[in-house]
Amino acid sequence: MSVRDQLVRWRYHWHNATRFARDHPHSALVRLSGLGIMVFAAIYFVLPLYWLFSAAFKAPRTIDYPPSLIPEAISFENFVTIATETQFVGQYMINSVLVSTGAVVIVLVLATPAGYAFSRYDIKYKQYLMVAILFVQMIPFLAMIIPLYRIFSVVGLLDTLFVITLLSAANTTPVATWLIKGYFDTVPDGLEEAARVGGASRFQAFRVIVPLAKPALGAVALYAFVGAWNQFIIPLTFISSQSKWVFPVALYEFISLRGVVNWGLLGAASLIAMLPVLVLFVVFQRQFVAGLKGTEFKG
Question: What is the DSSP letter of 87?
Fold first, then answer.
């Protein structure tokens, strides 16, 4: 869409909005008030993040109080310090990628056949099982930390990346199962029936239908990746070796034991940790939305 077409479109919407406000002033006031509340809430939540990220581009000695939102001079000193004097963009990044990728694989392997089975099979007490799956998701993780710690201590999995991967996947699989099940419900079973008539087994028919669920699988994969990438309590509890830290735990490195925060380094590290997830969402946002809506993605 060209700039001219965009301006024409905005002018059309503005004309409709002014006409609606003239004809329905009370409804227009309610909508305007709601819009104002949302704008205020957005500023309230975004402004601290903006200041933190702007501090990443300030020289360490220029961060003072009251804080300035716009750096007087752009400096990459904080990024250089993180790259040369810490393991943040080295070992910690590798650990985060391994954990998040492993969690995605486990979630897809478990949730895809589970969602397919709940969608296609006439399982006894299916509705109760689906509710039970969500009930597991509603149990606070903090309530299960001590039993899980004792279990993994007995089996010798403490202080390993595998335990973080496994628990992150377990935390995401219930919702992923619901999402995939909902998407399979929207897919006609004609292809499966044709495959079965042609002599295919149930598993072969499942392989035929899975490619049609790419939007849902993409949405689940992105959801699982982000969930594992942002995990903090799990790695903080089950990991004791600094060499196995992931990004959220490594951010604590920039807060001293006396509570003194290096805002410049913390802002730069937070920006680096956020970039991979942001890039993934920007690239795959259409697939993600299509998967959540249960619609086919084309293009």
Answer: S
